[in-house]
Amino acid sequence: MSIELLALLFLVGLMAGFIDSIAGGGGLIALPALLSIGLPPQIALGTNKLQGTFGTFSATWNFLRKGEISLSEVWRGVIFTLIGAGIGAWSIQQIDAGFLQQIIPFLLLGVFLHTLLSKDLGFKERPARLESPIFFFIFGLLLGFYDGFFGPGTGSFWTAAILLLLGLNMTKATGITKVMNFSSNVIALILFIQGGNVVYSVGLSMGAGQLIGARIGSGLAIKKGAAFIRPVFLSVVFVTILRLAYVNYQGS
Questions:
Q1: What contacts 51, CB < 8 A, 6 or more positions away?
Q2: What is the pTM of this model?
Q3: Keyword Cell cycle: yes or no (predicted)?
Q4: Domain residue ranges in the chain
Q5: What integer pLDDT is reported at residue 18 of this predicted model?
């Protein structure tokens, strides 16, 4: 693979890491790029997990370093997300994900409309509707499974669930989402590596870009807060809906 192509993929990773660290959706940029250079779908997915893990790690570290989140707050979520993602990654090898592909655009549409219509959602903290240990048990298993099994929109679902049920502000919700994304990415990446479905030269080139892009994006999210994150989040969710709907229904 040429140096020029690897340099271009580095830039793709940088852009994907920047967007993903703010509102998720980095795979919308990275995965089509990997498919466009001729990687088979399974290898493109594995390589995407490698490069994406760099970005979620970078964003997670930045949120922790800045004190926006702490491990004492999220360790339960990490444990249950790892369990759920492992089960999901195993299950995708046993059953078809077609049903999820059909319903996810509609679930994301619900997230989009609720966030759009709730003008003050994420700007200030609200009373929690669910205690943190119960929340992380339920959603760690549920969204961890979903991310290991299918994946698109996981970050959006995490952020929406945290805003609605834990009542946290959008900056904190974004930080916790990155921790959970990183956790499920690691499990999925291990399984892809075991299956030999990773191109390291590509994944590491994009991963280097992800490290930088995620550092910049998470820094802006921390600095500017909900007023900056909210429109990016809504845009990413909307584009995800359009892409999934197009992929699922273009042949209908």
A1: 13, 16, 30, 202, 203, 204, 205, 206, 207, 209, 210
A2: 0.89
A3: no
A4: 3-249
A5: 96
